[in-house]
Amino acid sequence: xxxxxxxxxxxxxxxxxxxxxxxxxxxxxxxxxxxxxxxxxxxxxxxxxxxxxxxxxxxxxxxxxxxxxxxxxxxxxxxxxxxxxxxxxxxxxxxxxxxxxxxxxxxxxxxxxxxxxxxxxxxxxxxxxxxxxxxxxxxxxxxxxxxxxxxxxxxxxxxxxxxxxxxxxxxxxxxxxxxxxxxxxxxxxxxxxxxxxxxxxxxxxxxxxxxxxxxxxxxxxxxxxxxxxxxxxxxxxxxxxxxxxxx
Length: 247
Hints:
It is a single chain. It contains eight helices and eleven strands. It has about 250 residues and is of the alpha/beta class. The chain has one domain (about 5-245): Class I glutamine amidotransferase (GATase) domain (Rossmann fold). The chain has a seven-stranded mixed sheet with strand order 5-3-1-6-7-11-10, with helices on both faces. A hairpin with a 4-residue loop joins strand 8 and strand 9. Helix 1 packs across helix 2 (about 65-75).
């Protein structure tokens, strides 16, 4: 029996998101014939972190060749050039939401959006699929279900950008970029762990091996350098399996 093609939502900030963590999972899904809708706060066309678009060495720690190629393809699509507004997201239209990472200051528009957090709560209450990588786990940690008073992450196994990776990123770039790699004073891992029922639900993985955590409708990962492809494939497989099981 043939399953229908999924429709996913990719919300982004106006600028400063990670090109690989958005475009590589998009590409994997697009190659499977999926439909994608992009969203930004006010319907503006989004633009990735310009430092990351300079490449891994010049960035520094910018995107690699795969991510840059995927990003170029993604931004040329008609749907990318016509995003909807966060407020206009109708959760019933989508099978899953895909949340991107990124660390530069412009990410705060995305990471701190109350409107987006409310939409994320709806995705989880309706048992829709979700993928989140790196800093984007903060969106889930901050998405508080009003019926429980707890984060949507509360009862999930998960990962995120780990404290060790965040320290390495900062130490590798502060000489040129100052605190740009440290989005907040608190580490991403600490805030995500604080949202969980039990801190043992959090996995740090081992560098340089991939770490992707799949728990029911959620696929989470740490950072593009080690995890992007495995994360993208696991997300796509999870969504397709859930659609097939519901048909």
